[in-house]
Write a structure and sequence with these properties.
Layout lengths: L4 H5 L12 E2 L11 H12 L12 H11 L6 E4 L1 H12 L6 E6 L4 H8 L3 E6 L8 H11 L3 E5 L11 H9 L4 E5 L3 H4 L13 E6 L12 E4 L2 H10 L7 H11 L2 H28 L4 E3 L6 E6 L2 H10 L2 E2 L1 E3 L3 E5 L3 H18 L2
Parallel strand pairs: 1-11, 3-4, 3-5, 5-6, 6-7
Antiparallel strand pairs: 2-8, 7-8, 9-10, 10-13, 12-13
This protein binds pyridoxal-5'-phosphate.
Pyridoxal-5'-phosphate (PLP) binds next to helix 4.
């Protein structure tokens, strides 16, 4: 095989696969599935008929999700995770060499797929590490004149969020396609989905991997005006969602209200973790900085972050480490958060920070 420059310049993406007892690295919903919902999921799965291909358009799933979101089924397309949709949006709605604007830090998949599709990626560092507002985005768009801009709101990994009014300001000031990733919007509750008809340059991404506790099922959505959704549907792989995941997703979405209660519980737990982290921050001035979060995880700037990450992992507590001195910890169950906080506190003391 001929190894091309393109192949050489892409490093392998290795997700965390450590078998730790406490898993606070991927922002998943930590609650076990409700027993009644589980029964419905299993009974739906049982009826699947796996010798036949699934519905290529995942019509029932899209209908259920559209209902939850208060939009029309024709304004929604389902993907094998929102990851697949990021791939289609960057690969099909743009041409090779087109400029895309992303920010740093943000979700790494935007740059990953843009690279695969040979786009011209401009990655703008957020001012002071994580500050992010409409004016900053507008200024960056004016400076670089991209065809597309992608960002997450609330932001993974910083936990920062901007109000829908601010996002509208961005949309009104640019012709560029704005891909607004609302993977954690259930936790912030200021979605732009109700406004999709107002904007010809807006695509919203949503997922069942976080609030809906269905990361293993791989179901994500794009919501936008019908003419945009029609184009995305053209480019997706024909049978992108399995019958199993379609059946399970429909059963789960019937109980959207139960997930609202979990979101509220996780929001309280995140606040508690934040408060305790702030106390730890006070004990290590200048060494630990904890950022406020509008999602179900917390971003921490920390001296010797890699070492601390590894010590936690040795204690079977898995969080996420970033190369530039930051950590991100997902909100888990109360006892998981406490185990992390106690260990983090002890490690910092022992490290002499
Ligand atoms: C987790 C996450 C997703 C979800 O990806 P799926 O492929 O739907 O599991 C999308 N965007 C962001 C910012 C995320 O953190």
């Amino acid at each position: 095989m001929r190894i091309t420059e393109k192949m050489k310049s892409l490093k392998e993406y290795i997700p965390n696969v450590d078998d730790c007892k406490i898993k606070l690295d991927a922002n998943e919903n930590p609650f076990p599935m409700d027993e009644d919902i589980k029964k419905e999921v299993l009974s739906a799965v049982e009826k699947c008929g796996l010798s036949r291909y699934p519905d290529p358009m995942s019509k029932d799933v899209c209908e259920s999700y559209a209902k939850v979101m208060g939009v029309k089924e024709s304004q929604v397309v389902a993907g094998c995770g929102s990851d697949e949709l990021i791939g289609i949006i960057t690969g099909f709605l743009l041409n090779k060499g087109d400029r895309v604007l992303v920010f740093e830090p943000d979700f790494s998949m935007y740059a990953f797929y843009s690279f695969l599709h040979e786009l011209d990626i401009i990655s703008v560092p957020k001012e002071q590490g994580i500050a992010f507002d409409a004016d900053f985005v507008i200024k960056s768009i004016e400076r670089f004149d991209p065809k597309m801009v992608l960002f997450s709101n609330p932001c993974n990994p910083t936990g920062g969020a901007i109000k829908s009014e601010q996002v509208k300001k961005i949309l009104e000031r640019t012709q560029a396609m704005v891909v607004l990733d609302e993977a954690y919007m259930e936790f912030f509750g200021d979605s732009l989905v109700p406004d999709i008809n107002e904007y010809e340059n807006l695509i919203i991404l949503r997922t069942m991997s976080k609030a809906y506790g269905f990361a293993g099922g791989r179901v994500g959505f794009a919501a936008a005006r019908e003419e945009i959704i029609r184009e995305i549907k053209k480019a997706k792989s024909p049978f992108n969602l399995t019958k199993l995941s379609q059946a399970a997703a429909c059963a789960i979405l019937k109980h959207a209200n139960k997930y609202k209660a979990q979101v509220d519980a996780l929001t309280v737990l995140t606040r508690e973790t934040y408060a305790r982290l702030k106390e730890i921050e006070k004990k290590h001035p200048g060494k630990v900085t904890v950022f406020e979060s509008s999602a179900n995880f917390i971003y921490i700037k920390c001296a010797r972050s890699q070492e601390i990450f590894e010590k936690l992992r040795d204690m079977s507590i898995l969080i996420r480490a970033y190369p530039d001195g930051y950590l991100r910890v997902s909100t888990g169950l109360k006892e998981e958060n406490d185990a992390f906080l106690d260990a983090f506190d002890a490690i910092l003391k022992e490290t002499g920070l």
